Amino acid sequence: MDLIIKNGTIISPTETYKADIAVRDGKILAIGSEFPEAGAKIVDAAGKLVLPGAIDVHTHLAMPFGGTVSADSYFSGTRAAACGGVTTVFDYPVQRKGNTILGLINEKKEICAQEACVDYAFHCCITDLNDGAILEEMQKAVEEGITSFKCFFVYKKEGMMVDDGTFAKLLLRAKEIGAMINIHAENPDLIDLKIAQFKKEGKTSPWYHYLSRPEFVEAEGDKRAIHWAKNLEAPLYLVHMADKEGLEAAITAKTDGYDIYVETCPQYLEFTSEVYKREDGRNFVCSPPMKGQESQDALWKAVKTGGIDTIATDHCPFQSAEKDWGKDDFTKIPNGCAGIENMYPYMLAAANEGKISFNRAVELCSANPARIFGCQEKGSLTVGKDADIVIYDPEKDFTVSVATMHSDYDHTIWEGKQFHGYPVMTFSRGRLVYEEGKFVGEAGWGNFVKRAGRGK
Ligand code: URP
Ligand code: ZN
Ligand code: ZN
Ligand code: ZN
């Protein structure tokens, strides 16, 4: 035995029970009691919860975007992940138009092999089919364990947008090869129309970022994506869902038996569009923007009742000076916020307050992401799985501040957020990587997670 976690309360999506966990060679060897302790590191988890590490299936590390690059590298982003109880990070490499995707994935794998502090996987963003060559390459990507691809309905000037025809071809190809398409759904033409109108009227504060992408703009994108997926009978994953109308359409489609999944993010559960009226409103600029109270209430309801499948962060922070580019023009603000270190504490604190159960928090942040995206070694504390384990102290109080976070950004939208209950240890494949506020892992520890295709 390398590690024994004793006396803790283990949380799975369906059970809460007291048992010890024995770990050997990075795997969970046994769950029970009275294991032989000789030579093992012993962790006494009395009074604590023992949880599977979170899987953040939506991050943008070192991403060229909005005229700059997102603030966290693969090192600092995965370091922050470890300190927030996240043991697997999915990144979204973006295909440069005309280029291959396998080349991009290999580039990212090489960087992560040097830098990643926890395990990592990729969904590849496709921006150009290269006359169909990419549809061929997708098959090879699946064989290499990249079993999901992303499309953007927006970001035309950034060279990332795809049209409906491309989206449809990708849905069909993904279905054929056991993969899935993830979609960023908003309507680009409505956004452009609104932006042009606001610019003409001299309305340039961050509040107009929200008003140029309000509820119906996202709902149109969500419903269009759902419509295509239903009619092509292809699986679909809606990323960063933030509006009520789109959410309800997705839930109806799911109830009707379609292979559709919904993700939301902690920022949409915590903040409403009111933040864009604040002095520091530009720091909250992300796409889709935070929505009104009605949407937030609908998101919470779906978190509680099962309509939402996963919680992920869309971690994409930028430095204050970069956010300041948009002081007098919201269209110049790089889109994205921080969250990788805050997601699991946020959802677990919601459980600690009784808003949801700890079982549901674990389902949303670990078990469902693993199941939906084919991480067969992850997502639960079960014999034979990777020993990705978080010890959570339900009595520890913690206040977020940029100084105590482990990212490379200089501000966070979570500044001042208070949590009752906080992770105190994170193990990545049995290795301690975070303890009591300190990162104790190392760059290069993380492994690539080769994922199974759908139906495997
Ligand atoms: O504003 C955001 N969300 N930035 C990151 C890119 C994306 O749309 O997910
Ligand atoms: Zn997006
Ligand atoms: Zn994103
Ligand atoms: Zn308490």
Describe the structure.
This protein has 456 residues and is of the alpha/beta class. The protein has 2 domains: 3-51 and 379-439, Urease, subunit C, domain 1, CATH 2.30.40.10; 54-372, Metal-dependent hydrolases (TIM Barrel, Alpha-Beta Barrel). Helix content is 32%, strand content 22%. It has helices spanning 74-83, 101-115, 133-143, 164-177, 188-200, 207-212, 215-232, 244-255, 266-270, 293-305, 320-323, 343-352, 358-372; strands spanning 3-6, 9-11, 16-18, 20-24, 27-32, 41-44, 49-52, 54-59, 64-65, 68-69, 86-91, 119-122, 124-125, 148-152, 180-184, 236-238, 260-264, 310-311, 389-399, 418-428, 431-435, 438-439. The strands form 5 sheets. Strands 3-2-7-19-20-21-22 form a 7-stranded mixed sheet. The chain has a 6-stranded parallel sheet with strand order 13-14-15-16-17-18. The two termini are 31 Å apart. The model has no long low-confidence stretch (mean pLDDT 98). The protein binds N-(aminocarbonyl)-beta-alanine and zinc ion (3 copies). Residues 395, 420 line the site of one zinc ion (ZN).
